[in-house]
Design brief:
heterodimer; A: mainly beta; B: mainly beta; six-stranded mixed beta sheet; four-stranded antiparallel beta sheet; 12 strands
């Protein structure tokens, strides 16, 4: 299994530009999570999907952030317009919710730098 | 609400010595507890979890964790540390009735040769 795949691994962009981060979950997993990691705030859950449906987006910081999951094998996190304070590592994770308790499997992350 | 605390930002231990990374939690129902490890420039990797049953849980790379309900703790342990264990360790909790994990802020483990 290839694990969770994220692209790009690194993104450098200028303030005001649109940024799109991509994630391919592990095949057969039915839940997908987007996290943001910074030194100041640690690991924050932004949004999670179950069976491609957004369940909880209360962690999305602003309307500039949006996420989609058009099918079971692909998700995007978009920031428009981007700001320097969005600089962080963004992780995607997936899991199989078949039993009561499950672990999440993380991708390698996308390091975003907004100048 | 569910929460987890890792009281130490950093733990230093010499190679060959036992190590402990502390974690305490707060939940309303029954806790499901997890440990993850993050190496530099990598994503989080699952180490072990406690669901129910035996309070001592064994996981990957020789790590284990002890669930203590009375102290609401789930400390990560290893009998003999390796330099390669140096990494950032995260504790996470999920309460019954919740669908997501809450992660602690992480503890940096540094194992010196």
């Amino acid at each position: 299994d290839a694990g969770v795949i994220q692209s790009p691994r690194h993104e450098v962009t200028e303030m005001g530009q649109e940024v799109t981060l991509r994630c391919k979950p592990i095949s057969g997993h039915n839940s997908l999570f987007w996290y943001r990691q910074t030194m100041m705030r640690g690991l924050e859950l932004l949004i999670y999907f179950n069976n491609n449906v957004p369940i909880d987006d209360s962690g999305m910081p602003e309307d500039r952030f949006s996420a989609k999951m058009p099918n079971a094998s692909f998700s995007t996190l978009k920031i428009q317009p981007s700001e320097p304070r969005d600089s962080a590592v963004y992780f995607c994770a997936s899991s199989l919710v078949r039993r009561a308790v499950y672990e999440q499997y993380f991708g390698p992350g996308t390091r975003l730098t907004v100048t | 609400a569910q929460s987890v605390a890792q009281p130490e930002d950093q733990v230093n231990v010499a190679e060959g010595n036992p190590l402990t990374v502390k974690c305490t939690y707060s939940v309303s129902g029954n806790p499901y507890l997890f440990w993850y490890v993050q190496y530099p420039n990598r994503g989080l990797q699952f180490l072990l979890k406690y669901i129910t049953g035996d309070n001592l849980v064994k996981g990957s790379y020789g790590f284990e964790a002890e669930f203590n309900k009375s102290q609401t703790s789930f400390h990560l342990k290893k009998p003999s540390a390796l330099v390669s264990d140096s990494a950032l360790y995260f504790c996470a909790v999920r309460d019954t009735g919740y669908s997501t994990l809450t992660f602690g802020k992480g503890t940096m483990l540094l194992v010196s040769p």
